[in-house]
Specification:
The protein is mainly α. It has 16 helices and no strands.
Amino acid sequence: MPTDQLATLYPFLTSLAIGLLIGLERERSAAARAGLRTFSLVALSGTLGALLSEKSGAPWMLGAGLLIMGGMMVASYFKASESDDPGTTTIAAVVVCYALGAMVWFDLEQLAVTLAILTTALLYFKPELRGVSRNLTRLDLVSILQFAVLSFVILPILPNQNYGPYNAVNPYQVWWMVVLISGLSLAGYAALRIAGQRHGTLLTGLFGGIASSTATTLAFSRHGRDSPQLVGMAAVVILLANWVVLIRLSVLIAVLAPGLLRSLLPLLGGGALAGLLVIYLAWRRLDSQANAPKLEMKNPTEIRAALSFGLIYAGVLFAAAWLSDLVGSQGVYAVALVSGLTDVDAITLSSLRLFNLGSLHGEQTVNAILLAILANIAFKSGLASIIGGAALARLVLPGMAAVAGGLTLSWLLI
């Protein structure tokens, strides 16, 4: 076979693999009237239709093939009227398989294969998906819709540019924090519903620390205040999320400024070890409360709390910009202290960049990052105490103090 024809054969082999993958799952369904051979032929037909449309300059041929395939499947189910299964899922899968075959010809192999895998997963996990949908409450659906509006309706239309004095406020970035807080609350709610109180707590704390420890602290401080049964769980989530920050910063430093790792790792390691002990004790205390009443969250998306935090976040951004303008380049510590209130990553990344450019010495960089972390810990301790109340403060403050003490002691000993 000539080389050019061998190259043409490759898309058909990819389409055949896609059809076999989807057909393999449909073959397992007794109600489905299409299996391995049918789906393989459908995928090959999609690629063949795309080839003929391209070579002949007649795009209608690809659409005609789709109508023929879909019509044949509909007719097969109408003919077998004794079945209770209308076959809409299989018919839809045939249409998708045909389109994926056409995508392969148009040099979209990677996307087509990815979509084929996702399609097969959707078909295979039908019982699990049906169980999830049946277990959703009205509150679950309202929360999901609220989060969807915040994320996919409002966020995309906001301008991603700076406004106001010192160009300090970016509406897109501020609203992104609103979305982040709502998403964290919803994720925590889902983790608790799926994994239960103990394991859901760990998942929420870990992912909350990766995304935003400040947002996690705010959201679960409100949960601890609104539901006394959630105080122990909220404290573990908050402490764990703030502990993850130290691990995340260590990774950032190792990647962006390895030369500073020797100076900063003992500081971050000392704080992490001190905090880990308190987290373990809080976790054991939560474990002993396994028979506590059923946990309930009144509003997983926490839109009011998210909006409040968005305003606070914008205010601190403006304050940091004003202070930087007031004290100039010599005020790196003051800027770190203020900007660290809401975001440790920003000041850490900027300090590491200045270090790499030679604008900051190693000692100055270490001190700036340490001040930002301590300011962030103090700010989140205040959030937990003021919003969460005395009960939450009694559980959270010792852990926060342990981390801050570990950082400070390590800094003094170096």
